[in-house]
Design brief:
Seven copies of one chain form a homoheptamer. The first copy, chain A, has 91 residues and is mainly β. The first copy, chain A, is built from one helix and seven strands; from the N terminus they run βββαββββ. A six-stranded antiparallel beta sheet of chain A has the order 5-6-2-3-4-7, with no helix packed on it.
Chain lengths: 91, 91, 91, 91, 91, 91, 91
């Protein structure tokens, strides 16, 4: 099964959220956890300008509550809009 | 009877929602069910750009509460807007 | 008396709502009745693009609470906007 | 005194609302009275496209609560926007 | 001191509101007084299209609560936006 | 330290508000004080059209609660948007 | 790890907020602290016009609650939109 997002949407596989610890080992409280998440781009929408900026395989930072959650083959994905993508991350 | 959607609307026959079970057999609670649904495109609106992206027979993922519900010949359909279509699914 | 809608408006004569029964004869509850309605186009607004898509005599599906209700010669009509028209129905 | 509406506004003299009776003589309850009203166009705004569609003397149907009420020489008028005009009525 | 409004703003000197009486001498209640007011244009904003439609010295009808009140030399003025001007009045 | 506003923003040094007295010496109540304020333009944003209309040193009238307050060298300034500027004042 | 903001976003490293004291040594109350903050631009989004106005290394003033907070290598950053940037500061 292959999902092809429409227009300016992007299919993302969110990466596991590593338990949040500061360098001193203190657990960050819940509210502080509502930060953007990191994910891998699985498919890019049909918009050509978007395709020139975001590629399949890109690691991206996206707004945590942006978009819609979907489930495929037992894994969770998100379909977000371009405006939910904050940045591309290069390791 | 044939329904021809206007402008950027799409007529969809939603597929039955298979009862949600995780691989471990646990029932997903109701709130988690408010995910996008899958349906088959029955008719595409008059917008030409839309017609180049969505075809009759396409299996699409659409926002669960998007659009309007209609009943024809005892079956339920939805007429949704382009912005309610998240992606095309290829098996 | 003749009513000529302005811009993107359409004058519709709503068809009687047949009492809603499912094939098994069960009455659909009230909330389920808030579905789009069917009507006949009596007049189309001055917008040229609209006139190329909607014709006098078309049977259309329109959002139930869209537009404004008017009464002429003892009959009820609705003046709706283009965005309230979901589809044209061909029998 | 002459009032020249600016841009897309239209000066209307609302016609008296005849007491609402159905053909069977039953009085329509108050809520049902919040329908569009009929008025005569007294002056059309400076917008050229508007002037090509609405003429002084036209009988128009306009949204009952649209625009602003003004009083001139003891008579009531309304200045409404183009979007408040639903249709032109030809007798 | 001279005030030169920016962009689409207009400086208005509101005319005194004559106590509201109908021809029969009945005082109009407060709610009915929330009508547009009349004022004299003192200065017109820098927008060229606006300058072609509204001139210094014009008597205008403007939305009563539109814009901002300012005080100069002990007199009250209003700076309103173009959209607050309903019409030009010619005596 | 020099502040260069971005796009359509303007840096303003608000002038002291002289205690409000009418010519009869009566203090204007608090609500009446929520009027536009006067300030001196310290820097104009990068927008070229804005730069052609507002100059450094101009005395301007601006919406009292518009923009953001900043402190530099112990003095208070405001950075407001073009839409917060009502007029330029010439003495 | 390198973060490349998308479109009109900017990655900022906020500077420490020096404890707020007025010249007389009085502590400014909390509400007064909700002022814009200063930060250093770490990366500029893909928008070309933005890149011509904001450069890496610029010290900028940005709306305190604008954008999203992210954490990299134990340091806090913000990704803000162009509209959250008030001004560039030159020392």
């Amino acid at each position: 099964m292959k999902i092809k997002p429409l227009d300016d949407r992007i299919l993302i596989e969110p990466l596991e959220e590593v338990e949040s610890k500061t360098s001193s080992g203190i657990i960050i409280p819940d509210t502080a956890k509502e930060k953007p998440r990191v994910g891998i781009v699985i498919a890019v929408g049909t918009d050509e300008d978007l395709q020139s900026k975001i590629k399949v395989g890109d690691k991206v930072l996206f707004a945590k509550y942006g978009g819609e959650e979907i489930e495929m083959n037992g894994k969770e994905y998100r379909i977000v809009s371009r405006s939910d993508i904050l940045a591309v991350i290069e390791d």
